[in-house]
Write a structure and sequence with these properties.
Strand content of chain A: under 5%
Helix content of chain A: over 70%
Structural class of chain A: mainly alpha
Number of helices of chain B: 17
Oligomer: heterodimer
Number of strands of chain B: 23
Number of strands of chain A: 0
Distance between the termini of chain B: 30 Å
Shape of chain B: globular
Radius of gyration of chain A: 25 Å
Largest sheet of chain A: none
Largest sheet of chain B: 5 strands, mixed
Distance between the termini of chain A: 8 Å
Shape of chain A: globular
Order of helices and strands of chain A: HHHHHHHHHHHHHHHH
């Protein structure tokens, strides 16, 4: 078990290296650089721009830049500074409570997705081809097909323009009212966070729910047609026991695997939602860096997301082995 | 009676405890904003009371708190309010007015400017502000090569030297220049930094710290209690991606005529809202007090204002900056191709034809919902040097405007005259040799620019020019601009009051002379005269004389049609009616609404 973990972790290193090289190349072949905006400013002279280019090392050949970047990480553990904020890159990405909010939003959305998707999937399978099955499936696909940014905007618009929540002193977007950021934990603060979080859960949650519902429904239908289920029914067991005790337990395995895999998607995939709903997440600061072509921060962000993906994979493998005794580590 | 005395005593003690900071009495040299004083530009504003919170919204997070290393407006919005300079541009009139300096004089030979600082005023931590701070900021920060600042460029004199800053006594500093340079006074509005706090971070003064330490001083992760400023507001709280809070500086030296210290509000909160649609929704939801609106928002906000208690302020003042397209007169020059097309592009009659084919009224109506004005000059319309005025700072009459009226027939005649006619009968005009003339205009993905280009292309096509439009990535566009590799490019530039700010654009060797870089090596008579006029305009402190030089300069450039100007948006915003004095805003900082709001003069009417 331990050797398995170590082996898997070591595998990550060459993978991350390749990811970093590809990312670096992609950043470099993007037209322009961090200073493009400044070049259009009539007040800035050529000399000042040149000094900045040298300061950031942008005048060196591409492979040399990559080599120095890598060297600083290997030798000094230094991922570089943000051109923009003059702070270390990870500080730029995580500054404030961004990492905590990112993890909280990702995990809570995941839990909510599963809490809703599994029962709906079971209901859907047990009511196959009935109107109610079609309705929930339709709703699931609706959530999948509405773009997140649009759904988020429509929600905010409904709250502000149709329900006029402002007259009750309620605010929209963000994770809580401004003054709560400065205050300690209280019941009012938790209530306020819940008020701000439900649109987030709704928007991000529904986008992934359809897949889970269909998966649960399909697996359960497969399982329900297996001989052992027929045997259970023939024994005279109650239908409830047949479904929940015997069929669901086996049908749920693939969903557990997906649990680990969907974690990175929730972190990187919620960027668009974060932009509209003003969520202080790593995704948003990464997006800002992309906008400004703040290279070191983009690289750090890409590595962070890749790491998340690899860890998600690792978790998925563990979970699978845990729920399915047939899987061995060796 | 005894109780009353004790009570009074207690009140004094509490008030000392609460207002322990700040001036005991108004400093003699305080800066008085003539709020409500007849005959001034502030006469229609009201006296306010202290207290309350003003909530605004910004699109981006700031990048740091250090004014001298700030590179863009999302940062300077805050640093400019935290640190002020010797002089300032008046918010309303745009004139240069005293700020930290109470007065200045210019020597007879016009080479030395002597500033007299306000005495008895203090930094936000209670330390006195003296000439040492000015000398430190200028000599050890701005002119320090180790410091990554854009401000040094603004100080450069035409002979490539910098003004020399010297302290005369604690409250007097002089700036000595080697040549007469009027824009220097404007550049000396740079923000003054506290020497007693920041000198330790400058390698030159404190060799214990590495070179470049100053560039990493006062970054976003700095403990905010370390920030010391002299402006009306000091940053007191920052939640990344969420909000920036600025609190009143207890030692700000600005007062109103009634003796109330400014700013009126206790706090100004800037909510960071990355999406402009959401920004509008938050304003409509009453979460922010002021909103810098877009033209498309007006039909939504206007009917709602009366019910929700806000005002949509539509000004007819065009903002700063220029919007234009260029016809690349050097097309194919580097590659040795397109010789004939280049010849046509270099013919001013061809460019006149293009200019006569800009339907500015339609652009203003369709793209800007009517909220824009036609532009013909390289100098921003609000500038007192704008040649559409009759004299320096005079009213806008457009008497001197060089106007290419919308007249497709005239444009077609001009093209016929230079031999750009349809030769193969396909309905599209060809080059004089008979080869087809194909043009492509590029701009970046910006709704307003795209809308404008579509109208332009429509009109050009109607007179038989084979023009197409293509959106390209912003960075690619800039590469094409500087690489002189584009065909037609539609873009805009920022601008200000000072025409000399455009010298990098319009001087024949300027780095943004993008319509014809080859003018640097082969200037024609007009180019030479433009270069000369730029020097003459900057070389005199006589504003009327400078105005005359700049009028000729603007007319020459308008006739030359290097950059062909289109329309520039006017300035509008919406505010809740309880925000006093919000009806008056300045477009001097940037044209985007609440950036021009006079935050230190606004107050909460509900507290009256």
């Amino acid at each position: 078990m331990l050797t398995y973990i170590i082996r898997r972790t070591l595998y990550m290193l060459p993978l991350l290296l390749v990811v970093s090289l590809i990312s670096f190349t992609l950043i470099k072949i993007m037209p322009g650089d961090f200073l493009t905006q400044a070049r259009l400013n009539p007040q800035i002279t050529e000399e000042t721009l040149q000094a900045q280019i040298e300061r950031f090392g942008l005048d060196r050949p591409f492979m040399v830049q990559y080599f120095y970047w890598l060297k600083n990480i290997v030798l000094h553990g230094d991922f570089g500074m943000s051109f923009d904020t003059k702070m270390p890159v990870f500080k730029t990405l995580f500054f404030g409570d961004r990492l905590q909010w990112t993890v909280f939003i990702a995990l809570s959305t995941l839990v909510i997705q599963y809490l809703f998707a599994i029962p709906i999937g079971i209901y859907s399978a047990t009511h196959q081809y009935k109107p109610s099955d079609h309705i929930v499936t339709f709703l699931g696909f609706l959530g999948l097909s509405i773009p997140n940014f649009f759904f988020a905007l429509v929600l905010l618009w409904l709250l502000v323009v149709i329900f006029d929540v402002g007259q009750f002193g309620l605010t929209v977007s963000g994770v809580m009212d401004l003054h709560f950021y400065r205050e300690g934990w209280s019941f009012a603060k938790i209530l306020n966070i819940l008020w701000h979080m439900w649109p987030v859960w709704l928007v991000i949650g529904t986008s992934g729910m359809a897949g889970l519902i269909r998966l649960m429904r399909g697996n359960l239908l497969d399982t329900l047609s297996l001989p052992y289920v027929q045997t259970a029914r023939a024994k005279g067991l109650k239908e409830k026991v047949v479904i929940y005790k015997h069929a669901v337990r086996n049908a749920i395995n693939p969903l557990v695997t997906i649990l680990g895999l969907s974690l990175p998607g929730l972190v990187s995939g919620s960027v668009v939602t974060a932009i509209i709903l003003n969520l202080p997440t790593v995704g948003l600061s990464y997006w800002n860096a992309l906008q400004r072509q703040d290279e070191n921060v983009i690289m750090a962000g890409l590595l962070f997301f890749s790491l998340f993906l690899l860890i998600g994979n690792l978790i998925a493998d563990f979970l699978l082995a845990w729920v399915d005794p047939r899987i061995r580590y060796d | 009676m005894k109780n009353a005395l004790i009570l009074a005593g207690l009140l004094v003690i509490t008030s000392v405890a609460v207002f322990g900071q700040g001036y005991d009495v108004m400093p003699e040299d305080a800066l008085i904003f003539p709020v409500g004083v007849a005959g001034t530009v502030y006469e229609d504003m009201e006296l306010g009371v202290q207290g309350g919170t003003l909530t605004l919204a910004n699109l981006e997070d700031p990048k740091g708190w250090n004014n001298s290393t700030a590179h863009e407006t999302s940062t300077t919005w805050f640093t400019y309010r935290q640190h002020r300079g010797l002089v300032n541009l008046d918010h309303i009139s745009g004139a240069i007015v005293p700020d930290l300096a109470k007065s200045w004089e210019i020597s007879e030979d016009q080479l030395v400017i002597t500033f007299h600082l306000r005495e008895g005023i203090k930094w936000s931590d209670g330390e006195p502000i003296t000439a040492d701070d000015v000398v430190f900021t200028y000599n050890d920060v701005i002119l320090n090569e180790d410091v990554d600042t854009n401000q040094r460029d603004g100080q450069l004199l035409p002979d490539d030297t910098y003004p020399v800053c010297a302290k005369v006594d604690d409250y007097t500093v002089t700036f000595t220049m080697s040549v007469v340079f009027r824009p220097a006074l404007n550049s000396l509005s740079f923000s003054i930094l506290p020497e007693h706090v920041l000198a330790q971070s400058v390698h030159k003064l404190n060799p214990d710290v590495p070179v470049g330490t100053f560039n990493e001083t006062w970054t976003l992760d700095t403990d905010l209690t370390e920030l010391v400023g002299n402006g009306p507001w000091i940053v007191s709280d920052y939640v990344p991606n969420v909000s920036v809070t600025m609190t009143r500086n207890p030692y700000y030296y600005g007062y109103d005529p009634a003796g109330t210290q400014l700013p009126y509000y206790d706090e100004v909160i800037n909510v960071i809202v990355t999406n402009q649609d959401v920004m509008m929704l938050k304003f409509r939801n009453g979460e922010t007090d002021v909103y810098a609106l877009r033209a498309v928002d007006i039909p939504i906000l206007l009917p709602e204002g009366a019910r929700k208690g806000f005002t949509v302020k539509i000004t007819d003042e065009p903002g700063y900056g220029t919007t234009w397209f260029l016809v690349n007169q050097d097309i194919g020059l580097a590659e040795g191709t397109d010789a004939e097309k280049r010849e046509v592009y270099r013919n001013v009659k061809f460019r006149e034809a293009m200019a006569h084919c800009i339907d500015k009224d339609t652009i203003v109506t369709n793209v800007f919902n009517g909220l824009a004005g036609a532009q013909w000059s390289p100098v921003s319309v609000p500038s007192p040097f704008y040649a559409g005025r009759d004299y320096y700072g005079g009213p806008i009459t457009e008497n001197n405007a060089v106007i290419f009226e919308y007249d497709p027939a005239k444009a077609a005649a001009l093209l016929d005259e230079i031999g750009v006619v349809d030769q193969d009968g396909d309905g599209m005009r060809d080059l004089p040799s008979g080869a087809p003339l194909k043009m492509e205009i590029n701009t970046n993905d910006n709704t307003v620019r795209v809308g404008t280009c579509l109208i332009l292309v429509d009109d050009w096509t109607s007179i038989g020019l084979d023009a197409t439009f293509q959106v390209v990535d912003f960075n690619t566009l800039v590469d094409r601009l500087f690489g002189s590799s584009g065909d037609l490019i539609y873009l805009g530039l920022t601008g200000g009051d000072e025409p000399n700010g455009g010298s990098n654009v319009y001087n024949s060797c300027g780095s943004l002379h993008a319509y014809r870089y080859s003018a640097c090596d082969e200037p024609d008579e007009v180019d030479l005269r433009i270069d000369e006029l730029l020097g003459l305009g900057a070389g005199t402190f006589d504003l009327d004389e400078a105005f005359d030089y700049y009028t000729e300069y603007q007319q020459l450039l308008a006739h030359q049609l290097g950059y062909i100007y289109t329309v520039v948006p006017t300035f509008q915003y919406a505010y809740y009616n309880y925000v006093g004095n919000a009806f008056k805003a300045s477009s001097t900082s940037t044209p985007s609404g609440n950036n021009g709001l006079l935050t230190e003069l606004c107050f909460d009417k509900r507290l009256l």
